[in-house]
Amino acid sequence: MNKKNLAHFEKRLLEERTRAMKEIGHYDESFNATLQAADGDLSSYSFHMADQGTDAMEREKAFLMASKEGRFLWHINQALRRLYETPDKYGKCESCGEEIAFERLDALPHARLCIRCKEKEEDGKRR
To answer: What percent of the chain has pLDDT over 70?
Structure first.
């Protein structure tokens, strides 16, 4: 892979990292916000069971989304580590060693596997 492509993918990874960090920051703010701040009520507890269920569901949903962003950020950081530490290996499939298509890396700059190997991996998980 040439230096121009490596610079392009570094830029893409850093953009994705910035976006993920911003999302995680948004979830952090929502976790720290009290229920009182959300609805303006003097009490921070819901009195109706349906409200309590809705509040619990919203907290659970926010937690799951933040967890997903955290995993995505981990994959981005791993890709940046590969790019910086072994730039000659970045963009090569970890399974077969073939070059990963530019289009795939442009869409998923943290991709570790080529399309063919990723399909094999997903087929194995389905069985």
So the answer is: 85
> CA-to-CA distance for 111 and 117, rounded, in angstroms?
11
Burial of 120 (0-12, 13-18, 19+ CB in 10 A): middle
- Contact status, residue 2 vs residue 13, Cβ threshold 8 Å: no
Domain regions of the chain by residue span: 1-89, 91-127
And the tokens for 37? 């701040």
Residue with tokens 């998923």: 108
Least confident of 9-13, 26-30, 33-37: 33-37
CA distance 54 to 1: 50
> pTM for the whole thing?
0.74
Which region holds residue 97: left if phi is over 0, alpha if psi is between -120 and 50, else beta? left
Q: 63 to each of 25, 31, 45, 70, how far by Cα in Å?
A: 12, 8, 19, 10
